[in-house]
Amino acid sequence: MRRRRFLAAASAALAAPSAAALLGGCAGSGDDGTLDYLSLAWQKESMEANKALVAEWNKRNPNRKVRYVQGSWDTVHDQLLTSFEGGEAPDIIHDEANDLTDFAHGGYLADLRGLLPAGLKQQIPQRSWDMATFPDDGVYGVPFVQEPRVLIANRKLLDQAGIRAPEPERPWSWPEFEEAAKELRGGRTFGVAWSMKEPVNQSVNLSLTTGGAVFYQEDGKNVVRFDEADSYVSEVIHRQVNKTRTAPEGSLGMGGSDTLPGFFSGRYAMVPLNFSFRQQVQQQAPDGFEWVTLPMPAGRGGGAGTDAGGGSGTGRAAVQGVSPQTLSIAQDTERKEDAMAFIAFMTRPDHMARLAKGDWMVPTGTEALRDPELNTARHGWRTGVHMSSDLRASPVLGVRGYAEWMDKIATPAFQEFYSGGIGLGELRDKLVEDGNRILARYQR
């Protein structure tokens, strides 16, 4: 899921490159032999960390220098495609696993399996490597930071309602979450505000909490299903907006940042957001406003068709799908070993933790996760670190045709469903029947 800008104008000024700047990399063929590193860092702390690490690398490696090239999340896919086809791609590419599928299938990215140092391979768990493993089991990126979906809640409203705040070790079940939202509903305050301007990734990724996936493999091919386990969370959202009225319909057209003014004013008691939004909350919250980071609700068990409701105690599944940020190598570069050496340097445990803190995200490496500054209750860091063991590859990763399905079918269908325009049966028909026709075209 592509990073959302907190302050659009400021971010655009910081991060937007010209096409010429991005296309200037020539896969290791620069005049001075310098490797080009396309970075999509855009927050001040993250940009400073990346540039400082590049400078440190260059000081240590004067004969294999790296040039920092600023990119933008808003335009990276189209610009990379143009540069790949023109033979002028950056040597080292910062992107997101969700964006790698077509590039890997097109032969534009190097398979890293024969290049990965043993130490780097071992420090990142297999569940994270699965997020960057696509056709023929090739590894096309090093996953280094990721972020779960969390609940940001108004602590004062929780305390006033006498509601138990869930902990990572003991999250709410989905029925408990619905009950909490009802108890928080009162006057002008809604229990929760679902921002569904871009509803598909979060609808699919959260289906894992109840044993769903939406995307499945049948006879070696990707197919869409939307059975009970897949639709459970979507039904919760629909019910909160259209039946219990614990969530406002008006938030459905919002992005995550759009919900924050209402959250700060007490109109919304809880807002489900990506983990990195904590930085914006911390920066923009009014003086004296107390907020807390809570884990998303969980179902019971981990397999499709399991009991989604759950209950207090053990056996609850807090898994959810994510698409981590990655570092890849262009297939055309003539200096793959040097490029990998730089990636290994950037993802050393202390460096990985530094990059994660700059982006307010969670590192993938087991040693980086032990960083003391990440294991603190302050700003909810400990919640994200604890949730990292429950993060799995988003079901959409590696699915060719997903982007078309999302744009043409799933986005309008989910938006109609959440607003009450269509029922569950019609939503299922659109997602499955129309969706499988699209996926079939990509798998002939």
Descriptive overview:
- Helix content is 39%, strand content 14%.
- It is an alpha+beta fold and 444 residues long.
- It has 2 domains: 8-146 and 323-393, Periplasmic binding protein-like II (D-Maltodextrin-Binding Protein, domain 2, 3-Layer(aba) Sandwich); 149-321 and 398-442, D-Maltodextrin-Binding Protein, domain 2, CATH 3.40.190.10.
- The strands form 5 sheets. It has a 6-stranded mixed β-sheet with strand order 2-1-3-13-4-14. It has a 3-stranded antiparallel β-sheet with strand order 8-5-9.
- Helix 3 packs antiparallel against helix 15 (349-359) and helix 17 (402-418) runs antiparallel to helix 18.
- The longest helix has 19 residues, at 424-442.
- It is globular, with a radius of gyration of 22 Å.
- The chain starts with 7 loop residues before the first helix and ends with a helix.
- Mean pLDDT is 90; it is low at 1-26 and 301-315.
Return the CATH class of the largest domain.
Alpha Beta
**Order of strands across the widest beta sheet?**
2-1-3-13-4-14
Number of strands: 15
Distance N terminus to C terminus? 27 Å
Could you name the CATH homologous superfamily of the largest domain?
A: Periplasmic binding protein-like II
Count of distinct structural domains: 2
Percent of residues in helical segments?
A: 25-40%
Indicate the radius of gyration in whole angstroms: 22 Å
Number of helices: 18
Per the CATH scheme, the topology name of the largest domain is D-Maltodextrin-Binding Protein, domain 2
Mean pLDDT: 90
Give the structural class.
alpha+beta
Low-confidence stretches: 1-26, 301-315
Q: In this structure, how is the largest beta sheet organized?
A: 6 strands, mixed
User: What is the annotated CATH architecture of the largest domain?
Assistant: 3-Layer(aba) Sandwich
Write down the overall geometry: globular
Taken as a percent bin, the fraction of beta residues is: 5-15%
Keywords: Signal
Signal peptide: 1-21
Protein name: Extracellular solute-binding protein
Organism: Streptomyces armeniacus
